[in-house]
Design brief:
The complex is a heterodimer of chains A (438) and B (320).
Chain A lengths: L1 H15 L2 H23 L9 E7 L5 H15 L14 E5 L7 H13 L5 E5 L15 E5 L6 H21 L4 H7 L12 E2 L5 E2 L6 H23 L1 H11 L2 H6 L4 H33 L11 H25 L3 H27 L4 H6 L6 H10 L7 H28 L9 H10 L1
Parallel strand pairs in A: 1-2, 1-3
Antiparallel strand pairs in A: 3-4, 5-6
Chain B lengths: L7 E12 L2 E12 L3 E5 L6 H8 L11 E4 L12 E4 L11 H11 L6 H10 L15 H13 L5 E5 L7 H16 L3 E5 L3 H7 L2 E6 L2 E7 H8 L3 E7 L11 E6 L4 E5 L5 H11 L1 E8 L3 H9 L4 H10 L5
Parallel strand pairs in B: 3-7, 3-8, 5-6, 6-7
Antiparallel strand pairs in B: 1-2, 1-4, 8-9, 10-12, 10-13, 11-12
Classes of the chains: A mainly alpha (438), B alpha/beta (320).
Chain lengths: 438, 320
């Protein structure tokens, strides 16, 4: 036991006492949340240069209103609402195309050439029967032609603007009052509320609106944090074991400590590294939420489960990574064996969204009881209010524990046989032989 | 001279170790007296390292194929901390500092108060300036000395050194040689394997040779040489261009450049050999002697030891 701890302490110190570790601690959240932050920061950083469009209006009734709406948008809708009044969207410029001097195809082709020559960005063809037609024939539809299909702002804006106008025209033609129809068809939102409860005096309290952050962002964040902690903590075991094998350090160590104890020492050190990372981020997350006035979002009720799952996940996956390091002779060889293990590690990523949306469904219960996926999926289910029955995480932990014991046992046998083997890596059948025949 | 009556610190009885179809060690028995320096010699792949690893409990004998007693214990797991081990291939964490690494290895052996000893050993092996440097900044010789310290820092009763002098320059080899002798003086038993026959002759009280997994020599250097008798002649012949193989009564010639070692056939008159030599040139040196350990090694291992012969032939002239 004492020797195991000595190995664990060295493993822990070797991982934690490096500049790379500190750098990783800082960079990891930036990498994970970076894309979101960048998206938010760059939200208003759009191209504000004027965008010019041609309108071929065969109906003869759409263009004027569309041009008026464009003017209105250019005056009011492309600036920030604050005092700065900064332009954050491009102006749309529209021009009417003469529809009488050429055949339809010729007119459309001429506009296509203008798009190619970059005179305009796109053009719209409004069919002659858009107001009276059924929207199924060519004459009763609207077509948007462009050479830059990923830019969709004008098409969407024009679609809603023209439709609103056509609705108005159709209602007027039918002799209906537009305002009355608008009032009659106004949608009513369905509120998303929690359950009602009573306070201490027995009075029924009104239900609180469901907190989207608590039900979606926090469970997702917990799972992502666990994935990150396990990956950062456990995957370096491949390299560290490989280093000990190829630098012949293992032989020195095995002169002092039996192979199984050596492996357990390395695993315990790695669990320590992962728990250090988890603690730092959890504490940091708590203070960040508290600072922002969202302390109630911190999932304190599942923190100990989280710690337990991290420890078990690192033992479970870490033993496999150690076995890989002991079985191969270089990094390239290790990649082949890493693939199936990594599939196992990332398997919860394939289903986490379904589990988050329906944490109590039969699928979610079964998926979260499959041991390699249990730590990440069970923590999601436990974090989403109101949680799950206690027997489920207990059963999950029991199954993970059994799997972990088997993985550690199997890895121990591979480690013992592979760690002194030089020259070539072990073949998969050889590995199975080591596991089952010893 | 070492007393052969000392109690054995390592006893190996009828041990066999097989890897797949290959029998690395075959029915080996051995007894290492306490307080001695015991040399393991043998060609590459003959089973030296496997035997040493079995003494260290890194490998185990085939089930039911003999037993190994170390420090008087059959199951000597508990004795591991009383053994120091320097493997053939050096194993040091490159990113650790020298002092830090030695502390780690000492702690693994259960020695928690090793700092004064570490400082003392670093001083003795002229490494004090490097105590806080990382291993990857050390030269090969320095790293080897650090590895040696890691094997002895916990004051073991038995030290196993697998090729301790390989790759060392003469100055560092001498430093390590002195350290080994000092260990013996302090009562530590030293087992070391080597390809350097000169080092084996100079240091060992006993020599054990293993060949194709089997013991072929075991005993004091004196007794081993006596079994081969005085059948060797060392000669120097000026202007010698004559092939000494053709001299009557000469069975084999080992050429060390300016010195030749002749093995004389049984019942050959050495005076006749001298006469034959004088006819080929001016004889400046003629010495009737027992065979060197190197010669005995070559006689046993034959062509399989060619690689080692090449190594030895580059070393031998310096002592002639």
């Amino acid at each position: 036991m004492r020797k195991m701890i000595v190995v664990a302490v060295r493993e822990y110190a070797a991982a934690v006492k490096t500049k790379a570790f500190l750098l990783m601690l800082l960079l990891m959240p930036i990498m994970m949340g970076g894309s979101v932050v960048v998206q938010i920061l760059l939200k208003d950083k759009v191209d504000t240069r004027d965008k010019k469009f041609a309108v071929i209006d065969y109906s003869g009734v759409v263009y004027d209103t569309l041009a008026a709406e464009v003017e209105k948008r250019n005056d009011e809708g492309i600036f920030t609402k604050d005092e700065e009044h900064k332009q954050i969207k491009p102006r749309f410029l529209v021009e009417r195309v003469d529809t009488t001097s050429a055949a339809r195809a010729e007119t459309a082709f001429a506009q296509s050439e203008r798009v190619m020559d970059e005179e305009i960005l796109a053009f719209i063809i409004i069919g002659p029967d858009v107001v009276t037609g059924d929207g199924l024939t060519k004459d009763s539809t609207i077509a948007y032609h462009s050479n830059s299909p990923t830019y969709d702002d004008f098409r969407r804006w024009a679609s809603s603007t023209i439709n609103a106008q056509i609705h108005g025209l159709r209602l007027a033609a039918a002799g209906l009052d537009i305002d009355a129809v608008a009032a009659a068809t106004k949608p009513i939102s369905v509120g998303n509320l929690n359950l009602l409860s009573k306070d201490e005096s027995g009075t029924i309290k009104p239900a609180e609106p469901t907190n989207r952050a608590a039900t979606f962002l926090v469970p997702m964040g917990m799972m992502m944090l666990m994935f990150m902690v396990v990956m950062v903590g456990a995957t370096p075991l491949v390299n560290s074991t490989l280093e000990e094998k190829m630098q012949r350090i293992a032989e020195v160590l095995l002169g002092s400590i039996p192979p199984f104890q050596l492996m357990l020492g390395k695993l315990i050190g790695t669990v320590g590294v992962s728990l250090t990372i988890a603690t730092l981020y959890l504490v940091g997350g708590f203070f960040a939420l508290k600072q922002g006035g969202y302390a109630e979002l911190f999932p304190a009720h599942v923190v100990w489960w989280f710690v337990l799952y991290v420890a078990l996940a690192v033992l479970m996956y870490g033993s496999l990574f150690i076995a890989i390091g002991a079985a191969v002779t270089d990094i390239k060889e290790s990649q082949n064996l890493m693939t199936p293990v990594m599939l196992l590690v990332v398997s919860p990523m394939f289903v986490w969204m379904s589990v988050l949306q329906e944490p109590t469904s039969q699928f979610s219960v079964i998926a979260s009881l499959i041991p390699p996926a249990t730590p990440m999926l069970m923590i999601i289910r436990q974090t989403v209010p109101p949680g799950i029955p206690l027997w489920q995480p207990l059963l999950g932990v029991a199954l993970v524990l059994m799997t972990t014991l088997f993985f550690v046992f199997a890895a121990g046998r591979i480690f013992r046989a592979g760690i002194l083997m030089q020259g070539r890596g072990a073949k998969p059948m050889e590995l199975l032989g080591w596991v089952f025949r010893g | 001279m070492f007393m052969t009556t000392s109690p054995p610190i390592v006893e190996i009885e009828g041990v066999t170790k097989t890897f797949g179809q290959h029998r690395a060690v075959d029915d080996l028995s051995l007894s290492v007296p306490s307080g001695s320096i015991y040399g393991f010699i043998g060609p590459n792949g003959s089973g030296k390292t496997t035997t040493l690893r079995m003494i260290m409990r890194i490998y185990f004998p085939d089930p039911g194929a003999g037993k190994i007693r170390v420090l008087g214990m059959d199951d000597h797991a508990a004795a591991t901390d009383r053994i120091g081990y320097l493997p053939e291939e050096r194993g040091l964490y490159k990113k650790m500092k020298v002092r830090e690494l030695l502390c780690f290895y000492a702690e693994l052996k259960g020695c928690t108060t090793s700092k004064p000893e570490i400082a003392d050993w670093l001083e003795r092996l002229e490494l004090s300036k490097w105590a806080d440097k990382k291993i990857d900044t050390l030269s090969k010789g320095m790293a080897q000395k650090v590895q040696f310290i890691s094997a002895v820092i916990h004051k073991p009763e038995l030290v196993i050194l697998d090729e301790p002098f390989s790759g060392l320059d003469p100055v560092n080899a001498n430093v390590l040689r002195d350290a080994v002798l000092e260990l013996r003086r302090s009562g530590t038993t030293v087992i070391f394997s080597t390809h350097d026959m000169r080092a084996a002759e100079e240091l060992c009280d006993f020599v054990f040779m293993i060949f194709r997994g089997q013991k072929v020599l075991d005993g004091s250097l004196e007794s081993i040489k006596n079994t081969y008798g005085k059948d060797t002649v060392r000669v120097q012949v000026e202007g010698n261009s004559f092939d000494l193989h053709h001299v009557t009564g000469v069975e084999a010639v080992t050429d060390f450049g300016h010195l030749q070692e002749l093995r004389i056939a049984e019942n050959t008159d050495t005076q006749q050999v001298l006469e034959s030599l004088m006819k080929t040139g001016r004889v400046t040196h003629f010495e009737l002697t027992r065979p060197s350990l190197h010669d005995i090694f070559v006689r046993i291992a034959g062509p399989e030891a060619t690689e080692m012969q090449a190594d030895a032939s580059t070393q031998e002239p310096s002592r002639a």
